Amino acid sequence: MDVALVKPTTERATRELFAAARDRLPGSGPVSEARQAAFDDFARRGLPYRRIEEWKYTDLRTLLREIAPLAATPDQAALARAAKAVVARDAKGAYKLVLVDGVFAPQLSDQTPETGVEVRALRNILENNDVAARADLLITTAASDTMISLNTALATDGVVIDVAENLNLSRPLHIVHITTQSSTAAFTRSLLRLANGAHATLIESFVAAEGAAAYQAHDSVVLWIGDGAELQHVRLVEDAHDAANISTAIVTIGAKARFNSLNLTCGAAVSRYQGFIKFGGEGSHADVNGVNLLNGHQHGDTTLVLDHAVPHCSSNEVFRAVLDDQAHSVFQGKIIVQPDAQKTDGKMMTRALLLSDGAEADNKPELEIFADDVTCGHGATVGALDESLLFYLRARGLSEKEAQALLIQAFVGEAVESVADDGLRDVVIEAAERWLAARG
Amino acid sequence: MPLLEVKDLQVRVEEREILHGLSLTVNKGEVHAIMGPNGSGKSTLSHVIAGKPGYEVTGGQILFNGEDLLEMEPDERAAKGVFLAFQYPVEIPGVATMTFLRTALNAQRKARGESEYSTPNFLKKVRDVAASLNIPQDMLRRGINVGFSGGEKKRNEVLQMALFEPSLCILDEMDSGLDIDALRVAADGVNALRSPDRAMVVITHYQRLLNYIVPDFVHVMSKGRVVKSGNKDLALELEASGYAQFEEA
Fold first, then answer.
1. Nearest C-alpha of chain B: how many angstroms from A417?
2. B4-248: in CATH 3.40.50.2300
3. Up-side HSE of residue A57: CA atoms within 13 Å toward CB?
4. Which of A188, A191, A124, A179 is closest to A157 using CA atoms?
5. Which of A239, B42, B150, B181 reaches 20 to 30 Å from A276, CA-CA?
6. pLDDT of amino acid A138
7. Contact state of A392 with B86 under an 8 Å Cβ cutoff
8. Which residue of B has its CA nearest to A405?
């Protein structure tokens, strides 16, 4: 395909899309100015493609081709279909915050009655005068990435959550993204701010309502973790197998804080999860893990940038991919150690399990170290299931599929075991089990 | 009908013939020892009976209760009652022993059309068997064989044998890597499983194991065949004279 011929068409289509969407995008004045600037940035550069180093394995010009038209505001029928999908993905005991086709649906969401927790819709904030929240929401400086720009330009809604100082939130917050409209795109942006000493758990799920196909979910979350605060973060991408999911997390970690994150991707034909994680205070630790379970022609990309901007922080990345058929998994992990960030400890380990000859795993570790007293390391392996382990299990009565499933669960478990909370870990394991069960 | 009938079995591994027409008949209630020098094909026989991939059967047959064993997948053989205690049990990190035992037992029961064990019944059964083999509970919570000593791994094999209640147990070099105390514990576990409904094939290089598990029949293998059969006295004879007489044959 000739990229030079494709790009102008895409750009024109996208300009038309933006022009058409404008009336529906909340916010005026500085908000719409920021949107326009972000859109111009996207329009100038277009969809990222293989010559952009950060996107070399995930060429959206061939994988995505174009941005689908913005989904309509969901009607009653769409909300009813979404309600069914919510029930199927209910994480036990969590406060559900449901976004349907990119629009916050309070009627499908739970109230969060705990004192010190405030949940608002993005739309309301952009239309009001909460300048601080607006600035946080429209943050794009963390990474000069065109897909973040596009998200800034087109975000229709999202949830903005504030957790007060020293509050230990008793139940997880669960943002559920549901798409009901085929061949459309939804753009969402959410924000979670944990004040100093606060503890919270955030789950993000991406699913399709029954029958929704070939859609695009574009999401960004901005996470602020205050000094001494702790965030458990789990993402589950279970979109329809012909959908696309392009998501970004921009995370800033305060001093003596903890960030424990796990992304599990088993849905979507094309997915990209990019995490830009920055240590802003000393003495903090981040576990940033990921699992890709892919088959068919799925393409899943996890790209993480850990920015050790201050001394005395540690990060650990564990990534696992299980790939069948012609699936393609990408892991890119960059660790940056800034000149002042002495005593940094940064580790990264990725392993891929190939269940077929046609599957492919790409792994790109990058270390940019500007300090001299640091410990950083990375490792990667790619391999098939061990035949001797399979035979042992089969000699004990397990069928080939059962034996494979047990070994796959063990393989994935190394990334999942960092999730400390039993209930939360079960949510992840259940998602992995759904994938294994679907293999037959 | 014999429990196991191996008839004129010929097996190749990567173009090289390992078994050149081996025959063996095992009836219920019998304990057979198969002895022989390294490379005589003892372990190959055990692997082929259990269905390990990588072996090409070019001739002969194996009947188990009259059924053609070679037509069955390894898991079908296990469900029918074939159990191989591995010479080198593998370590499988991340798969808890308890989970594995329950999955395996219920898979076998399901294949036989029996109902699955309830959790309390299963736990009680495992606890009882583990206690009789001096296997502490915390070992069962760990990954399969992870961090187990050689003796613990072999005891874990005996535990599975007791749990799955197979009709044919093949013990492949059970004594390798065990000191005398560990050997005695494992052998006691095996002896407790001797029954008129169950047969055992004990594969060993050394006579020592047969002091603890006393066989009804002893077969000597050399160069891919059974070259001599007898009673337990044959093992003692071998201990005195060595395998050299058969190697030259």
1. 10
2. no
3. 18
4. A188
5. A239
6. 67
7. yes
8. B95
Phi-psi region of B203 (alpha: psi -120 to 50; beta: other; left: phi over 0): beta
Where are chain B's structural domains? 4-248
> Are A117 and A167 within 8 A, CB to CB?
yes
Span B4-34, pLDDT tens digits: 999 999 999 998 999 999 999 999 999 999 9
What is the pLDDT at residue A1?
Answer: 44
CB atoms within 10 A of CB B86: 25
Under a CB-based contact definition with an 8 Å cutoff, are residues A243 and A186 in contact? no
Please tell me the distance in Å from A399's CA to the nearest CA on chain B.
6
The two structure tokens encoding residue A281: 């205070």
Q: Residue A251 falls within a domain, yes or no? A: yes
Residues of chain A with C-beta less than 8 angstroms from the C-beta of B79: 397
Q: Give the residue from A226, A253, A415, A227 showing the smallest Cα distance to A319.
A: A415
Range(s) of the domain holding residue A371: 3-385
In the predicted model, residues of chain B with pLDDT beneath 50 are 249
Which residues of chain B does A387 touch, with a Cβ-Cβ cutoff of 8 Å?
53
Taking 70 as the pLDDT cut, the residues of chain A under it are 1-10, 129-130, 132-133, 135-143, 440
For residue A389, the chain B residues in CB contact (below 8 A) are 90, 92
Nearest-5° angle of CA A42, CA A45, CA A51? Answer: 135
Phi, psi values for residue A210, rounded to 5°: -55, 130
Contacts for B232 with CB less than 8 Å, ≥ 6 apart: B33, B210, B214, B215, B216, B218
Contacts of B77 in chain A (CB under 8 A): 395
CB contact under 8 A, A409 and B94: yes
What is the interface pTM, i.e. ipTM, of the complex? 0.96
Interface test with A, best of B43, B90, B91, B102 (most A CBs within 10 A): B90
In a domain, A331, yes or no: yes
Q: Is the dihedral of CA A428, A74, A138, A229 positive or negative?
A: negative
Of A17, A287, A318, the closest CA to residue A150 belongs to A17
CB contact under 8 A, B53 and A391: yes
CB contact under 8 A, B107 and A398: yes
User: What is the rounded distance in angstroms from the CA atom of residue B77 to the CA atom of residue B62?
Assistant: 12
- A-B contacts at Cβ under 8 angstroms: 76
CB contact under 8 A, A397 and B89: no
What is the end-to-end Cα distance of chain A in Å, rounded?
A: 36
* Domain total in chain A: 1
Chain B positions touching A401 (Cβ under 8 A) are none
- What residue type is assigned to position A92 of the chain? K
Quote the pLDDT of residue B176. Answer: 86
Return d(Cα B169, Cα B158) in angstroms, integer.
Answer: 10
3 state DSSP class of A305: strand
Q: Which pair of tokens denotes residue A440?
A: 């037959």
Does residue A79 lie within any of the structural domains?
A: yes
Nearest chain B alpha carbon to A412:
B94
Please, which residues have CB within 8 angstroms of residue A87's CB and are 6 or more apart in sequence? none
Please answer yes or no on whether B52 and A391 come within 8 Å at the CB atom. Answer: yes
| pLDDT tens-digit series, residues A208-221 | 999 999 999 999 99
H-helix or E-strand spanning residue B153: helix B150-164
Mutate to test the interface with A, among B43, B47, B52, B75 (most CBs of A within 10 A): B75
Q: What are the structure tokens assigned to A69, written together?
A: 């038209």
Task: Give the C-alpha separation, A385 to A364, whole Å.
Answer: 22
Whether B75 and A407 lie within 8 Å, measured CB to CB:
no
Nearest CA in chain A to B75: A397
